[in-house]
Amino acid sequence: MALPPSLRLSVTPPELELIACEQLIEIIPLVAMERTAFISGAFGPLRPPAKCKVPIWMATNLKLKKKCHIVPPDWLNVDFLQDRLTHETSQPEFSQLPFRFAEVAKVLLDVASDDFENPERLRSLLKDIQEARQAKSREGLSKIDHSELSLPNLCSMEINEIRPVFIKAMGVLSQLVREPEGRLPT
Amino acid sequence: MDEDYYDVDAILAENQKVQCTFKVTVPEMGHLDGGNERDIKPLSKVNIPMWMAYILIYSDYADFNIPPPFSSRVRNALNAEPKSVKLCNLVGQGGVWYAFGVMIMKLLNDAPANDMSEILVKTFRSRLPEVIDQAQHFASITTATAGAGSADPSGAFREGLDGTERELFTLAQVAVQTTKKWYNHSEVPGK
Q1: Residue A175 CB coordination number (10 Å)
Q2: How many CA atoms lie within 13 Å of A23's alpha carbon, on the beta-carbon side?
Q3: What count of Cα atoms within 13 Å lies in the side-chain half-sphere of residue B65?
Q4: What is this structure's pTM?
Q5: How many other C-beta atoms lie within 10 A of the C-beta of residue B142?
Q6: For residues A95 and A105, what is the distance between their CA atoms, to the nearest angstrom?
Q7: What pLDDT does residue A46 have?
Q8: CA gap A71, A63 in Å, rounded
Q9: Best of B98, B109, B124 to disrupt the A interface by mutation (most A CBs within 10 Å)?
Q10: Given CB atoms, is B1 within the 8 Å cutoff of chain A?
Q11: What sequence ranges are listed for the domain DNA replication complex GINS protein PSF2 N-terminal (chain A) (predicted)?
């Protein structure tokens, strides 16, 4: 199947969001549901007010219909994010964050901001963390090499943003760097 | 040169002219240089495009000098401040300075070729962060206003971008725009 040129460059953010939404999250259901089989697996039963783990796509759906409350994941609170932010600003390496934190945070803050105790502060913390990491990846860009690149602890959205640029830049560099043994057969 | 045979960018880059000194007499080809001589005499300087120069040099019919886009004057300017040199002006319109440099490099022997490679790599590496910075900055401005209006030094830098750098700029800009658009999109109706 041929993709239009705009989609060939890299994965689109909505696609990444879809993949991230397969992750499980805890909810407090407000309606009852039997154990139901979905394409990705069987979930439930939902017995209010007991907590239950369901995929994020299901949680979002139920929340929009006002049929559940979402329990924030343990990394999505002010203390954890504040600690990570100080880590980002004080050290040159990237700090450890859940791989798909950007997508999960965006979806949850969007749909269920009333289930968090301080959504505005969370949003601003997340934004600061993202900007700090972006600045670091820009610095890494200037040290780019033609043969390899290692950026530990980078998260899925960030990788996706810089992927086309890095690949092209490394390609150009590999053409510019002359191999000392003579020409390489390509 | 085989790997670039079908590549449009390589074909365009090959169209640059270099100055060659012929070593043999070539009868009836004097018109190539626009001169009014009938033959090309040995030791005469002729401006010929790269794709022709490559074969002539390999068959040892001509020698060539380092062309102006890579002269010592340009090299000194690049050593001083890579970001201030307008690469696209050096090679004619739609210029691809890097691709041209790669081709010259393939023709040279070891020592000068390593020099060339070093200059190319150094210039690329120092200009790259600036290109990406500007691309990310311009992701938030739509294409309508992205014309000549902005602050002078960055606008001047953007005008001096070489073809390859322009491609990188577009790639970065598109990536940032897509992410931003996704980020601002909301699932909740009426938000």
Answers
A1: 21
A2: 17
A3: 12
A4: 0.76
A5: 9
A6: 17
A7: 86
A8: 11
A9: B124
A10: no
A11: 12-71
What contacts A74, CB < 8 A, 6 or more positions away? A80
- Tell me if A25 sits within 8 A of A56, measured CB to CB: yes
Beta bridge partners of B64: B20
B117 CB within 8 Å of a chain A CB = yes
Query: Two tokens at A168?
Result: 């092209």
Q: Which of A113, A126, A122 is nearest to A157 (CA)?
A: A126
What ipTM was assigned to the predicted interfaces of this complex?
A: 0.79
**Rounded CA gap, A97 and B177, in Å?**
24
- Write down how long chain B is: 191
Closest CA to A10 of B179, B131, B142: B179
For residue B161, give the nearest of B90, B100, B79 by alpha carbon. Answer: B90
Alpha carbon dihedral A143, A148, A150, A155, in 10-degree steps, equals 100
CB A176 to CB B120 under 8 A?
yes
Q: What are the tokens at A105?
A: 């945070």
Strand order in the sheet with B62-64: B45-49, B17-22, B62-64
> What is d(CA A151, CA B69) in angstroms, rounded to the nearest whole number?
36
The pLDDT tens digits of the residues spanning A144-171 come to 666 666 777 888 888 888 888 888 888 8
The answer to whether the beta carbons of residues B30 and B24 sit under 8 Å apart is no
Closest listed residue to residue B95, CA positions, set B74, B110, B126: B74
How many A/B residue pairs have CB atoms within 8 Å? 89
Q: Which residues pair with B20 in a beta bridge?
A: B46, B64
Q: Which chain A residues contact residue B175 at CB under 8 A?
A: 9-10, 160-165
Contact A98, A76 (CB under 8 A): no
Q: Residue B40 pairs with which residues in a beta bridge?
A: B26
Give the pair of three-digit tokens for residue A181.
């043994």
Q: Cα separation of A161 and B157, whole Å?
A: 23
Taking residues A53-65, what's their average pLDDT? 90
